[in-house]
Amino acid sequence: MDPVVEALAGFMGFLSWIMVGFALPHRYWKESTMDGNIITISTVYENLWMSCATESTGVHTCRDFPSLIALSGYIQATRGLMIASIVLGTFGIVGTLIGMQCSKIGGENYVLKGRIAAIGGVFFILQGLCTMIAVSWYAANITQQFFDQFYAGIKYEIGQGLYIGWSSAVLALCGGSCLLCACISNSPGEKTPYPYHPPSRGQVRSTVATSQTPSNYGRNAYV
């Protein structure tokens, strides 16, 4: 496998894992601006764990969601998918570090190391899929409530945390796909070619014994 492609794919996977860890506790998954009186304008925003409000006077208030069971189903599913994404990304990083050619872990068996790197790429792809499903599902509920004319609650808009999650999912999918395709396409070439030694052919030396037939006849015999 090309070490440059391997390093680039590993870097994209590691960066996507960092972004997932940054997006999960991010406060601005959805936000809305509410007009109060002439002076007070409050901004309400939520994430997967709490709901916050900030007034123009500088007062900042946050409250955690009181009950896990009372939460909407999509919020619980999004939590699980994001946590699973972090776990899968951790396995992807470990597999990539072990399978890299510059790593001394695993010896010099490059065929085995290539397979381990490919497994790391699969974990990165699974991480990207979990993140993409979680973020897109959350955003779909925001847009559905926003365009619903009969929805009486606060209408939110897409926050910064969702964009970070989408970027992380794209990086994880690209990095995992590059790592997997590079390992699969170059796996036959990693086999150690054995030099061909033609069989030694013994040279058959036929020695013809030239025995001089003693002549029983002298010159006088032809007289």
Brief rundown of the structure:
This protein has helices at 3-23, 73-99, 110-147, 160-185, and strands at residues 30-35, 41-46, 50-55, 60-64, 157-158. With 223 residues, the protein is of the alpha+beta class. It is a multi-pass membrane protein.
Assign the structural class, choosing from mainly alpha, mainly beta, alpha/beta, alpha+beta, or little secondary structure.
alpha+beta
Span between N and C termini? Answer: 92 Å
Annotated CATH architecture of the domain at 3-27 and 72-187: Up-down Bundle
Biggest pleated-sheet summary: 5 strands, antiparallel
Overall residue-averaged pLDDT value: 77
Q: Largest beta sheet: what is the strand line-up?
A: 4-3-2-1-5
- How many β-strand stretches? 5
Strand content: 5-15%
Individual helix count: 4
Q: Tell me, what's the shape?
A: elongated
Helical content (DSSP H or I, runs of 4+): 40-55%
What does this protein structure show overall?
It comes from Nothobranchius furzeri (Turquoise killifish). This is Claudin. Keywords: Cell junction, Cell membrane, Membrane, Tight junction, Transmembrane, Transmembrane helix. Claudins function as major constituents of the tight junction complexes that regulate the permeability of epithelia. Belongs to the claudin family. There is one protein chain. Helices cover 50% and strands 11% of the residues. It is of the alpha+beta class. It has a domain of 141 residues: Butyryl-CoA Dehydrogenase, subunit A, domain 3 (Up-down Bundle), CATH 1.20.140. Strands 4-3-2-1-5 form a five-stranded antiparallel sheet. A hairpin with a 4-residue loop joins strand 3 and strand 4. Helix 2 packs antiparallel against helix 3. The C terminus is likely disordered.
